[in-house]
Amino acid sequence: MVKTLARITAAGLMALAASTALAAPMNLKIAFVDPLSGGGASTGEAGLKTFQFMADQLNAKNPDLKLEVMGYDNKLNPQESIVQLQKAIDSGARVVVQGNGSSVGAALIDFVGKYNDRNPGKEILYLNYAAVDPALTNAKCNYWHFRFDANSDIKMQALTNYIKGKPEIKKVYLINQDYSHGQAVRAAARAMLKEKRPDIQIVGDEVAPLQKVNDFSPYIAKIKASGADTVITGNWAQDMALLLKAAGDAGLQAKFYTYYGGGAGGPTAIKQANLPDHVYQISEGYPNIDSKAGHDFETAFRAKTGQELTYPRVVNLMNILAKATLAAKSTDPKAVAKAMDAIHNDTLYGKDSFMRPDDHQIFQPIYISRFGPVDTKTVLDSENTGWGWTGDGVVEAKDTILPTTCKMDRPS
């Protein structure tokens, strides 16, 4: 009788242990590999806070998930990025997220592809939230890489469609960073402006070393001397803020069409430069879109982190990662990638977005907004400047689609 009772008790404990194990949340470690020091630090820190905020939100919402985001400083260097990613893998990371620097993105795609080939059953995923060189989802595309930002060509397509209806734009100056992203921006601007507005003069086209220029006044002097009424730039972080500062110091009143004017430090630089309604941004979102969900999220995010949301696409990325993981019922990157391959999901602002399986490029609405004085009683400002982003146009996701040359090898 005692032995029988012991067997029953043991069986019960085993069943309880098994049910507890089944009920345990799925753990997924995410390595954030981006600059946390140097000229890109403000951008990297803003991104890390956004990923960690989203992990907390999703963990609270989904008891079956436990997402952990770990920060690794890559110093904006491709080789250092690989070193840091290997450290993250050794610590159990199965997903890497990165965005700042397409040269870093290219290095990560190459590393992840080779790593997964050599380590079947231990694969990792690379989720790209901001490296926008078109080559990353064309010539360099890889099954294990998913991009959650519109690439440079998609953004330029939206921007030049907007410029097409602005006859007052007559002289354009291109200034970009001297690496793959900057080169892609200038090439797309030249080609698309020639096609859509052949009357526009491109009066300057140059590149500057990435995050190494401390004074952009010589560049601004050349822009001013050219007579340009419009500047197009893909600059980001310190290179964006210092470019605007120099424009203000020189009294340049040209319009700036930017990819990243709303990044950390950008709004303050625009206000200090006294360029009201002169700086535009092409992005997947901004704080004052007419969306209750977006407004509520922005308010909660600011209250928790002390910063505004500069990466709506990180919200979209993390929501899709959680959705794919729950659908796969697994944190195995192979299962998650399969669930994410052609996924649809609403953006933060309630609009459909979708992943193209051909190249793993996401498509989502693209907004054009401008920065200037706002009524802070009804409109959210940025960086406590009293100025904010307001809408100037939107391109729906289906109208942003461009073809891809990707020839993707898929795992068996």
TrEMBL record:
Residues 1-23 form the signal peptide. CDD domains: PBP1_SBP-like (cd06329). It comes from the Bacteria. Residues 28-370 form the Leucine-binding protein domain. Keywords: Amino-acid transport, Signal, Transport. InterPro entries: BCAA_transport, Leu-bd, Peripla_BP_I. Belongs to the leucine-binding protein family. This is Branched-chain amino acid ABC transporter substrate-binding protein. The lineage of its organism: Bacteria, Pseudomonadati, Pseudomonadota, Alphaproteobacteria, Hyphomicrobiales.
